[in-house]
Design a protein that fits this description.
The protein has about 55 residues and is an all-alpha fold. About 95% of the residues lie in helices and about 0% in strands. It starts with a helix and ends with a helix.
Amino acid sequence: MLTETAVDLSTIVTADMLGGVLDQITGLLPVVLPVMIGFIALRKGISFVIGMLHSA
């Protein structure tokens, strides 16, 4: 059953489809990467402020 599914997928999915997916992912990177970095920085900043308040 697994090999039948793999054969079915190999006939449906083409290199052009995979190329389109890769293009969409690389197109989203300039938006997603700064958002992720900003979220991590915000989390660390809040953690730092809370730590300073606890120690005061």
